[in-house]
Amino acid sequence: MSEISVPTLFDVAGKVVVVTGGSRGIGLGIAEGFVKAGARVYICSRKAEDCEKAAAELSAHGECHAVAADLGTVEGCRAFAAHVAEREPRVDVLVNNAGNIWVETLEEYPESGWDKVLGLNLKGVFFLVQALQPLLLAAASPEDPARVITIGSIDAFHVPDHETYAYSASKAGVHHLSKHLARQLAPSHITVNVIAPGRYRSQLLENAIELEGADEMLAPIPLQRFADASDLAGTAIFLASRAGSFLTGAVIPVDGGHASTL
């Protein structure tokens, strides 16, 4: 029988973790979880003031650093990676959370909406992995792989109710891209997995609840509640810990069973 050390099974203390889009919403919740678990966390967003404010609040619980970055361009991804490389010899965990959404009718959907959403949600994920690959390789080992965790969506599994064409297409692309990267990077001891959230209590969801009502929004969710920060942070910490070290190429719905009804 193998010896299992339960206290260290979910331990991420001392890991260097990058969370993109970490100043609010899902990214902030995941960053908070890693900070409180003892990791050294770097968060980024396009708005320097928001990022610095979030990092200052998280620093009350551990170590968190803010970096302003536009990850919707290749140059932005490379500049951000260079900034991290100046401060760290390795990155143990990359959480690709930064993303955009654009809602518009089929008749009026603009090219700029496609470019903005695909540029950050899909292209940005690929080129940030590319730019941070040397730091991920420096952290990787057979026993403790480096981890790439990308935030997808259950909208990649079904046709959403709202006209978010570029968003749902980008998330479907992210799911497949992550599986492709998982296969490519496995020999280098880097795992790549996706967390696909369901209905998370973001400002966007709050607006929808106000329009449609909570009961209507909860109706398709078997567990009858919305996802919260601890649900997403817990899954990310699992994937980054020893407990998740043999998992790669997986898409994990964190949605209260919503995907099972689609």
UniProtKB/TrEMBL annotation:
Keyword Oxidoreductase: yes
Keyword NADP among UniProt keywords: yes
Keywords: NADP, Oxidoreductase
Family matches, as InterPro entries: KR_dom (IPR057326), NAD(P)-bd_dom_sf (IPR036291), Sc_DH/Rdtase_CS (IPR020904), SDR_fam (IPR002347), Sec_Metab_Biosynth_SDR (IPR052178)
Domain Ketoreductase: 15-198
Pfam family, one: adh_short_C2
Protein family per UniProt: Belongs to the short-chain dehydrogenases/reductases (SDR) family.
Protein name per UniProt: SDR family oxidoreductase
Species whose genome carries this gene: Aeromicrobium senzhongii
